Amino acid sequence: MRRWWALIPRQRRPKPAAEAAAAELPELEDAAWYVHATEAESASFWRMARKLPALAAEAIALAWDANRWLTVLALGLNLAAGVLTTTALLGVADVTATLFAAEPTMDRIVAALPAVAVVAGATAGRSVLGLAAGWAQQRLAPLVQNAIEARFFELSTQVPRAAWDEDAYADIIEQCRQRGVRAVVELVEDTVDLVTALVTVTAVGVALVVLNPILLVLLFLAALPSGWAAVRSARLQYASNRSRVSRRRRMWVYEMLMASEYTADEVRVMELGPWLRAQYRVMVAVETAADFAVIQKQTWTRLAGSTASGVALGGVYAALLGMIGTGMVPLAAAAAAVVALQSGGAAMRSLMVAINTTYEDSLYAEAVKEFERATHERIDAQPHRHVPAPVEGPLPSPERITVDNVSFTYPGADALSLEGVSLEIERGQTVALVGENGSGKTTLAKLLSGLYTPTSGKILWDGQDLALVDPDWWRGHVSVIGQIIYHWPLGAGTNIRIGRPDADAEQDAIAEAAQTAGAHDMIMKLDHGYDTLLSKMFKGGTMLSGGQWQRISAARGLFRDPDAKGVLICDEPSAALDALAEAKLFNALQERAGQGITVLISHRLSGVRSADLIIVLEEGRIIETGDHSTLMARGGKYASMFDLQAASYLP
């Protein structure tokens, strides 16, 4: 027997122009929110129903952790409303029985007043309880989201840096961020809706059983067609969306290209506007046709459901009339039966839809569990968590750093980025790492800064293996000025202060670091000085050039190490600086000489000639070491690189 979704027509084949537009971009991978699409589409109703108890228990536990009183209110008030639903329906039966047991008289009307009062009170009470339950549910949703997001960010900021280089982990965290967190919140909301619908159906069912158990069967027969139509319409939309996700992402790419500050220059210089708009129009045309196609199928589905529902309802009323005629249902109770069947039918439709959405959201809510499991595994796998602490407390700033036969391979990579690297750095030394692109300079700097743990070998601080010491006990002595600078959308002063976020916000110290890095004068020329927001996202914000951002980054790195006794790692710190700013920065670094440890990476060899030790790397190995004079006299790799650069300044 073919399943109903097999009847969904395939998406219309795009016109040749649409195929040409699609060919402009490669095939896009399914987005994270569609990773469980096949399972959601193919699950049977009974398969979903079997999982409901466990899903409901899980969702209620999440809600309980977020706020137990709101959870009790949301569920308890819905249960109480269900009791009042039964009371109201049975009250209707009492009213009609009292009024129509014989010819109505004033005495019978007066006798029916208590039952009328019960019906009115129960109906009003049910409405009030429903509103109160809705109030609790609405307040509960943001609390659940806050709790889930707090757990997410707590773990995402603690996971080791190497995890972000793993393709599998990147997929896990992307699924959790894009769909998982929202799915958990929706799962809690779905569960409350499910409980509400189930309580209502149960309340109506109890009333029908009291009137006549056969009426309960009629309720299911009347509600099934419209419930089926509602679920099928939702799945038609879902299946259509899934089949079109790649094209919609292509549309998003074109939208981004046409309306972004990063592409604005090239779009105008190369006159790309007409071409981009034409590509976008083709995509829009095909998408609109697909929308019309699914709307048509949904309309036919709803028509079929309404027709079947009307036939079923007619059959139900015919059966009810037959039961009245044979005396199975008293005439006086018929009105209550009609009201119960109507309210029960609506509740049954809501219940079927709630079952479908609860199951679907539960699949995506698994992404949060998977993220938490994967993150805890990587946090717990850190070497320092599996050995007794070799030190009793925080390490002092190192007198000597020893790199002992270190090799390193990035997660997922086959080739070694570093192989058998050994060196020693003494306090007060400035060490320069030089070499061609891909030689391993930045990788070695990342290992020295503690972002990664060596695949083999050790990095020692005064004899202590850093891999076995909690990073919180030594990372405070490390400062980095990187070549890739994130443009933090914060104030200029705050951008520097986050180098030491736990420090007092002393303006003098911030300004001193900026002055040393050559950033102070530039900052003072901004509209609001150190209070200027460095982002156009905010009103009054400004945009800096690459060189200006590099000055901010240098100031931040220097602010983190105010007494110049820590480990300062500078990875191409002057790549975007002009000649004057570069000279000022290198002068500042030279002033650190004899104090802390400075590790400098630069392709401009004029800036490293004063280093105490120059390390030349090639394909992940150290091939030369020495100061500038020694290496120039040797006439090796360093000398040839230096002579090549120097020649460009000669006539």
How would you sum up this structure, described in words?
The protein is an alpha/beta fold and 651 residues long. Helices cover 60% and strands 9% of the residues. It is built from 19 helices and 10 strands. It has a 6-stranded mixed beta sheet, sandwiched between helices. Strands 2-1-4-5 form a 4-stranded antiparallel beta sheet, covered by helices on one side. Strand 7, helix 17 and strand 8 form a beta-alpha-beta unit. The protein is elongated and about 120 Å long.
Provide a quick synopsis of the model.
With 651 residues, the protein is α/β, with parallel strands linked by helices.
Low-confidence stretches: 1-35
Oligomer: single chain
Average pLDDT: 79
Major sheet details: 6 strands, mixed
Separation of the first and last Cα atoms: 86 Å
* Overall helicity: 55-70%
Overall, the morphology is: elongated
**What fraction of residues sit in β-strands?**
5-15%
Radius of gyration, CA atoms, in whole angstroms: 35 Å
Order of helices and strands: HHHHHHHHHHHEEEHEEEHHHHEHEEEHH
Q: Given the helix and strand composition, which structural class is it?
A: alpha/beta
Work out the helix count: 19
